[in-house]
Amino acid sequence: MDTTDLVEDISDDSDGEGQDEEDLSQPISVTADGGVVKKILVPGKGFEKPHAGADVSVHYVGTLEDGTKFDSSRDRDEPFEFKLGQGRVIKGWDQGVATMKKGEKSVFTIKSEYGYGASGSPPKIPPNATLIFEVELLSWIDFTDLTKDGGVLKKSLNSVEGWEKPKDDSKVTIKYTLKTQDGKVVESGVDKSFVIGAEEVLPGLEIGVKDMKKGERVHLTVKPKYGYGQQGDAAKQISANTTLIYDPLELVDFTKEKESWEMNTAEKFAACERVKAEGNDLFKAAKWERAHKKYKKALGFVDSDYSMEDQDKEKAKPLRLACYLNLAACGLKTKQFKDVLENCQKALEIKDKEVKALFRRAQALNGLDEWDEAEQAFKAVLEVEPQNKDAKRELALLARKKQAQDKKDRALYASMFKSSPTSSTTSAQPAASAA
Fold first, then answer.
1. Is 114 one of the annotated active-site residues of the chain?
2. Of these residues, 80, 108, 114, 133, which one is catalytic?
3. 60 classed as catalytic
4. CA 172 → CA 166, 188, 377, distances in Å?
């Protein structure tokens, strides 16, 4: 007889309420088709159960139907940890563990379609094997620290399939209710849209949405650093240093741009030009970091030319050159001098006497206080363009800087080795006494 006729179906009741009223002596169907069946050995505590995305810790013993043990965390004396509902384990585990409470110990009977399927997992698990797992849920952490400093914490409220998430420049649509920690509703939105990376919303909200999949609902905690900070928001009656909570926050939809590998060469060139122009606008607005991201993205469309025709490879070179030069310009503004040197080197590999690359390399060396190398780099600019006023001016400033440092060093050395009259008299006294 099919086991689905013998068990109670809980596939539509995964929140745990009413579980204490069940007859624990009876098996419970986790899935509607009886593919995962659960028998509770030791009831858990409370009503809460781990949500998708939670980091769970369990002990388990896995056996085949004939009792052959193929794996055991207890034998290793080390709990097994995994992220629930993310496909990191077999389907039967993702669905079964989600029905458990803290401290619960249950036996799961998992048919092959929820286990290792027709292929099995040689040599220990044969094809089409039904698996028996005794599982004890030790603990779980529902929140994922997206910023690694506790600033933005995400707790998934549902499980959705797929893996794609929004990227920079994706247009996203969300539903949300924003609250303070005391439960006060600040605002809510339905079908609110914004562009990732365009600084249209709070940093914490953007960080959270970038880690979501379409249809996913989450509880998102945003600390002041990633919210309204020390200023607060008077219009929304949010005081300084307020922690915000989006509960719930749902990613309704997002646009997915064509990936570079999906484009033909003409599309890649057009995309590069468009994104580079967006970077130029951001650079002019003194938004250096966002401009850097745009130039990096623009470069991604043309940095590989192995599939291009020879004539297109030549067309791609000036585009790559412009991107490297612009990345170097951003690096000078943000004082990422080593990044500048790397991008200038790549630009010079395309065009060995590119004045902008030579000049920006010299500026970066100067910024790193590599004065001798910077001097030679500025002179290299003048070798290509003898009348370059900027290079002449920088060389003059550098010469004065070196002179000032030399003067300072000489004064320091003089004070270190200069003997005082008192020390001379004192050192002579022992000699007189000895005589």
1. no
2. 133
3. yes
4. 7, 16, 46
pLDDT in tens, 217-243: 999 999 999 999 999 999 998 999 999
Interval 26-65: pLDDT, tens: 899 999 999 999 999 999 988 888 888 788 999 999 999 9
pTM (whole model) above 0.90: no
Question: Is 226 a known active-site residue?
Answer: no
47 is catalytic: no
Catalytic residue list contains 82: no
Catalytic site residue 71? yes
Q: Which two three-digit tokens encode residue 420? A: 């005082």
